[in-house]
Design brief:
GO molecular function: aldehyde dehydrogenase (NAD+) activity
Number of strands: 22
Number of helices: 15
InterPro entries: Ald_DH/histidinol_DH, Ald_DH_C, Ald_DH_CS_CYS, Ald_DH_CS_GLU, Ald_DH_N, Aldehyde_DH_dom
Helix content: 25-40%
Strand content: 15-25%
Distance between the termini: 63 Å
Largest sheet: 7 strands, mixed
Oligomer: single chain
Pfam families: Aldedh
Family: Belongs to the aldehyde dehydrogenase family.
CATH class of the largest domain: Alpha Beta
Catalytic activity: an aldehyde + NAD(+) + H2O = a carboxylate + NADH + 2 H(+)
CATH topology of the largest domain: Aldehyde Dehydrogenase, Chain A, domain 1
Number of domains: 2
Strand order of the largest sheet: 14-15-16-13-12-18-19
Shape: globular
């Protein structure tokens, strides 16, 4: 793919103030696929200035104009679906079919959904003698992750556009390329100059400056819990708003009365999506102790049957990790499991059967670690790879205690004999969302976490509300 030599600032493609570049590597081969600018603090300052200059007019723009541009961006993404899906399969390692439906498809859905929501959103409400206004929060600093480069950009930029805000986006250096495509599409869609700006660069430099910039009104970050803590600390100096979508170690509870085979099938689907590189992945499987052997046998069948290889191959189930660093992180964690744990499938060894072209890729074997307790690191720490940990419980109260015994609270799953039984269990979980009997992700529902999984919500009307401030006009009568 072609190198990106310029940043997108104020509606123009401009060179960075610095001379450095960042290598973007193909996850499956370890080979260089493109270079992007290593932006500087000066680039951030220019981008924020452009966003601030554009905010006054854009914040007063007719809702119909915002709706139109959101839908045009969605259409533009659809037109470039093949390019984008291949790009993110190569950057992130997402198997190509998932890259089309999730990496690209969810991005399209978010832009369209924000247009739909805006059509039915009232920005004024009369309450007694008060007229309450919803107004755009201002300039948004959006810091996006490498695991879902387009979807997470959409989850921040689409509501910002809808609310009348302007944005400066710092994409991950591991997978930055989709952000440039979005800028091209937005420009073609008629988004005014300065409403969207893209600055690539190191988090410790570009991200730090963006989070602490005095003219940024809201910082929205998706990333690790440590990154979220740092952004919160930097942003606090100016008392600016933050939304943080951070890590997870989510539990999937198989209830005592559940259909075990159906439950395990749903649990595997929830764990291994995007090669396990998903903050909301249900990576702790909690099963009744009496069902353990049946569960283990089903896991060996399902996970052991997954194919690993080139994510551009339609037949592949599991691709590589997005980076060598992430590959090593996962392998190190697998090498440090308790001595009495059982590897049902996979483990820290090398993936076999890869052709020569893939030998330097960032692959990890799909793994199931069973018979561990909730005090072990593999059960408590976010792995962010294709690893499922199996724990047992004696009764449902213990299962709920184990599920809630976590620093995180982002996601979860419950599989029971019927929906009512599963919902009764889910009501007792301290987490932001719960899949009920295999219920699928809903892009219109609020997404976010409790505890160290974050602050605020993304997606749907709740996500849009994060980008508004409210003004009360106290009328004479």
């Amino acid at each position: 793919m072609a190198d990106r030599n310029e940043l997108y600032i104020g509606g123009k493609w401009v060179p960075s103030a610095g001379e450095g570049t960042i290598d973007v590597l193909e996850a499956a081969t370890g080979q260089l696929m493109a270079r992007v600018p290593a932006g500087t603090e000066s680039d951030v300052d220019d981008a924020v200035a452009a966003a601030r200059a554009a905010f006054g007019e854009w914040s007063q723009s007719p809702l119909a104009d915002r709706i139109t541009v959101l839908r045009r961006i969605a259409d533009g993404l659809v037109a470039r679906e093949t390019e984008l899906a291949e790009m993110m399969a190569r950057e992130v390692g997402t198997p190509i079919a998932r890259s089309r439906t999730v990496q690209v498809g969810l991005g399209v859905t978010i832009f369209r959904s924000m247009a739909d929501i805006l059509e039915t959103t009232s920005l004024e409400e009369r309450r007694g003698n008060s007229l309450i206004l919803k107004v755009g929060v201002g300039v948004v600093g959006a810091i996006t992750p490498w695991n879902y480069p387009l979807y997470q950009l959409a989850a921040k930029v689409a509501p910002a556009i809808a609310a009348g805000c302007t944005s400066v986006v710092k994409p991950s250096s591991v997978a930055p390329l989709a952000a440039f495509v979005v800028a091209e599409i937005a420009e073609e869609a008629g988004l005014p100059p300065g409403v969207l700006n893209i600055v690539t660069g190191a988090g410790g430099r570009v991200g730090e400056r963006l989070a602490g910039h005095p003219d940024v009104d809201l910082v929205s970050l998706t990333g690790s819990t440590s990154a979220g803590a740092r952004v919160g600390q930097v942003a606090a100096a100016d008392i600016k708003k933050v939304t943080l979508e951070l890590g997870g170690k989510s539990a999937f509870i198989v209830a005592p009365d559940a259909d075990v085979d159906a439950a395990v099938t749903a649990a595997v689907r929830g764990c291994y999506v995007n090669n396990g590189q998903t903050c909301a992945a249900t990576t702790r499987l909690l099963v009744p102790i009496g069902d353990l052997e049946q569960v283990e046998a089903k896991l060996v069948e399902l996970v052991g049957g997954q194919s690993v290889g080139d994510p551009l191959d339609e037949a592949i189930d599991i691709g590589p990790m997005a980076s060598r660093e992430q590959q090593q992180t996962v392998l190190d964690m697998l090498s440090d499991v308790p001595a009495d744990a059982v590897f049902l499938v996979g483990g820290p060894g090398e993936v076999t059967g890869l052709d020569e072209r893939l030998q330097a890729g960032f692959f990890v074997r799909p793994t199931v670690v069973s018979r561990v307790d909730n005090t072990s690191a593999i059960a408590r720490d976010e792995v962010f790879g294709p690893v499922l940990t199996v724990l047992t419980y004696s009764d449902i109260d213990e299962a709920i205690d184990i599920a809630n015994d976590s620093d995180y609270g982002l996601s979860g799953g419950v599989f029971a004999a019927d929906d009512a039984a599963a919902i009764a269990i889910a009501r007792r979980l301290r987490t932001g969302q719960v899949s009920i009997n295999g219920g699928r992700f809903n892009a219109m529902a609020p997404f976010g976490g409790m505890k160290k999984s974050g602050i605020g919500r993304e997606l749907g009307p709740d996500g849009l509300d994060e980008y508004f401030e409210k003004i009360s006009l106290q009328l004479p009568a």
